[in-house]
Design a protein that fits this description.
The protein is mostly helical and 107 residues long. It has 4 helices and no strands. Helix 3 packs antiparallel against helix 4. The longest helix is centred in the middle third of the chain and has 36 residues. The relative contact order is 0.10. Keywords: Membrane, Signal, Transmembrane, Transmembrane helix. This is Multidrug transporter.
Length: 107
C-alpha cells in the first residue's frame, strides 16, 4: 500500500491529520473567554466542587503521611503544590463553571 500511494500523498495525509488534530485545541482556546453556561455552573457547584474539596482534604492527609519522606527527599514544596495547593485552587479560587483555576476578575 505504501508503494502505491507515494511519499507526497502520505506526507499530505499526515499533515492533514495533524492539522485536524490541533483544531480542538484551537477551539478550546477561543472558548476559554466565553462565560460558562448555567448548566456548567450547576454541575460545577453540585458535582465538581464537592469532589475537589474531598480531593483537597485527601491530598492534605496524604501530604501529612508522606511529609517525612518528602522532607528526606527535599521535595516538600513540590508535594505541597501537587497534593494541596492545586486542588485547593481548583476548589476555592476558580470561578463557578470555569475550567481555569483563576478568579473571574483575573481572566
Amino acid at each position: 500500500m505504501m508503494k502505491r500511494l507515494g511519499k507526497s500523498t502520505i506526507f499530505a495525509m499526515l499533515a492533514l491529520v495533524m492539522l485536524l488534530g490541533s483544531m480542538p485545541a484551537v477551539a478550546q482556546g477561543e472558548r476559554s473567554e466565553v462565560r460558562p453556561s448555567g448548566g456548567a455552573m450547576i454541575a460545577d457547584a453540585v458535582i465538581a466542587r464537592p469532589l475537589l474539596a474531598v480531593a483537597t482534604l485527601g491530598g492534605a492527609a496524604i501530604f501529612l503521611v508522606s511529609l517525612p519522606f518528602s522532607a528526606l527527599g527535599g521535595n516538600v514544596d513540590g508535594a505541597a503544590e501537587t497534593l494541596i495547593k492545586t486542588p485547593a485552587e481548583a476548589t476555592f479560587r476558580r470561578c463557578l463553571g470555569c475550567k481555569v483555576s483563576r478568579r473571574a476578575d483575573e481572566m
